[in-house]
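User: Teach me something about this protein's shape.
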Amino acid sequence: MYVITRNVQTELVVQKSRFLTSLYRVSTEQEAQVQIKALKKEYWDASHNCSAYIVGINPRAERSSDDGEPAGTAGAPMLEVLRQKELYNVVVVVTRYFGGIKLGAGGLTRTYAKAVSEAIKASGLSRMIPMGDYAFTWPIDDVGRVLNHLYGKPLFSVKDVQYDDQATIILTCKRADQADVTHFLTESLRSPVSLEELRLFEAEEPLEASHS
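Assistant: First, the predicted structure itself:
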């Protein structure tokens, strides 16, 4: 799953109609609805303000609106582009100023989809990587030797070292790598190591432009 890297607004002109696409990152369904309402207010004089959003992963909320365009010609193709790009926590509004030439159902469907695709390309995508902070303890009189084994390793980074009766070493790594990190520690330190989960979070990793 991916998120957009930055909020963008793009413009597409087709047969004298202007299509302004506003693409925003959101955290909740309410935030998406507020953004749609704000854009409708800003572009109150437009012919249509069609919208689509996807919020969350599990559970996941999806909604779309044709806002007066023929049924299925705007909101649905917009939402489908978001799905195809595997996006979430995103809302898009395509504002149309009618130019006097009708595009037909097929033309509308293609244009609304293209408008969203171009906005996503302008924004760029980021992959969300599941990460975690994990801790293990070690005798203080041996912690210097242990840290020499830990710094500069590609599987994880040393986030912090806390000193009490024992040293608590806190590592950050991808959640998918936790078992490999545990194995590495046990092998390199020649003693069984058990990692305690402290915090789970997601880190954003921008993709190359070619992927968007």
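Now, about its shape. Residues 18 and 97 are 5 Å apart (CA to CA). The chain has two domains: 2-123, 127-209. If you'd like, I can walk through any region in more detail.
User: That's plenty for now, thanks!
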